[in-house]
Task: structure prediction
Amino acid sequence: MWVCICLVFIFSIFFFLLWFFFPDLVLKEKIIVKKELLRLVVFGHLLDKELIT
Result:
């Protein structure tokens, strides 16, 4: 559980820095990034459930 939270936290910082320094790049890739992030979070939750059970 904590690993998933830490990963999401690290990714959010990473994306914030990307957005801060390269706003044009992030705006173009925003939809793709959101899809990837959502997929990553869902996969992380599934992985957590498998590890717990």
Summary: The chain has two helices and no strands.
